[in-house]
Specification:
Layout: H1 7-16, H2 23-37, H3 42-54, H4 64-67, H5 75-81, H6 84-92, H7 98-105, H8 127-142, H9 153-162, H10 170-181
Helix pairs in contact: 2-3, 2-8, 2-10, 3-7, 3-8, 6-7, 7-8, 8-9
The protein binds fe (ii) ion.
């Protein structure tokens, strides 16, 4: 088989999932910085980098009219959308290290157990997922989406801090604050 640039596949994914342009790389970069601060091994950081890029790959299966909907989703649309972690897991489980596919599966679980798809809580959620959740939330707030304009960076930082211990793992937020204090958070150009 001829060689081809792997980034092409990421670009195709970003084209399909319109909102994701640049997002997956920023999430991946921030996740690796958070993981480094938490003392993860080089191998875990490699898994985390890949999980950051692929966390929303399951959205490829979503109806484009739902993905690009300007405004809030109705209950049916929300239910469909919330299937993307399991779809992403199914797409990657036999291809990648289980740590990567599990990070994808659990990346919308919340520290307080109120997330989806399973309602796992605390340390029962894989650390890679707890990290991706913080990186994803920060970038989602600070980049322009079909359903909302980019929010101010200071507001996004305060939201992450406000939700430490409920939505987010407080240990991950602690490292996030350290990065924010030295201006090391990757920002979308629209921010
Ligand atoms: Fe997601």
């Amino acid at each position: 088989m001829r060689d081809f640039p792997k980034d092409i596949l990421i670009e195709v994914m970003e084209d399909v999932i319109e909102d994701l342009h640049g997002h997956v790389h920023r999430v991946s970069d921030l996740a690796v910085d958070l993981g480094t601060g938490l003392g993860l091994s080089e191998y875990e950081l490699d898994c985390l980098a890949l999980a950051g890029v692929l966390h929303d790959v399951g959205k490829i299966h979503m109806d484009p009219t739902i993905l690009g909907k300007p405004g809030p989703l109705d209950e049916t649309e929300k239910d469909l959308m919330q299937r993307h972690p399991e779809l992403g897991f199914a797409m990657t489980r036999n291809r990648l290290d289980p740590r990567v596919s599990e990070a994808i599966l659990y990346h919308h679980e919340r520290f307080d157990g109120k997330g989806y798809p399973f309602g796992l809580a605390g340390n029962a959620i894989p650390i890679l997922s707890r990290i991706v959740l913080v990186a994803d939330a920060f970038d989602a707030m600070t980049s322009t989406r079909s359903y909302q304009p980019a929010l101010p960076v200071d507001f996004a930082i305060s939201e992450i801090i406000r939700n430490a211990g409920s939505q987010f793992d407080p240990n991950v937020v602690e490292v996030f604050i350290e990065l924010a204090n030295v201006n090391q958070l990757p920002l979308a150009t629209t921010a």
